[in-house]
Design brief:
Number of helices: 8
Number of strands: 0
Low-confidence stretches: 188-192
Radius of gyration: 16 Å
Largest sheet: none
Shape: globular
Helix content: over 70%
Structural class: mainly alpha
Amino acid sequence: MREQGAVQWAAFGFNCVYVLLATREDLRCWHYGFIGTILTFIVTLEANLKSDALLQAYYAGSAIYGWYIWREKARLSDDNISTLSFYYHVILATIGVLCIMPLGDIWTDAAFRYVDALLTAFSIITTFLTARKILESWLYWIVIDTAYIFIYFERGAHLLAILSLIYALVSIKGYFNWKAKWQTTHNTFLSL
């Protein structure tokens, strides 16, 4: 991969700010996420991770959607974190798995094409869950970001590999932050 130092560093910085603000439910996270995804799109395209590049384009649109949803939830005083039943997670997992072959078959020359497709499918689902403030989204992110550490490192996108490590660690914090808020608003314990 051609060295893209400045673009990788900028993507790294904007995406770090995004995830840290997201754990705090700060609406500004979506602004940083939007810029970070545009920059990451450039890096992943250069790394021949075509499904991931497509995912970055989706993230840019999701940043707009997430900003709108979080803003409306705050305006309507319905800014609560929710959870999904096991049944819904099974449905989401099934949808994600069913997307692997079509996504993986789009670009036959892509690196890690089926793993990239799997992570792309689940990242799309998980971004939607994060925008809807679903607690378990952080658990999905931990798994997804851990897998991306190895893929990005192998493809020479070392700063994105480090960013994925940071994402995975911050996702643990995000999960516990959101879980504490969920428990406070529901006055119960989550059975996970």
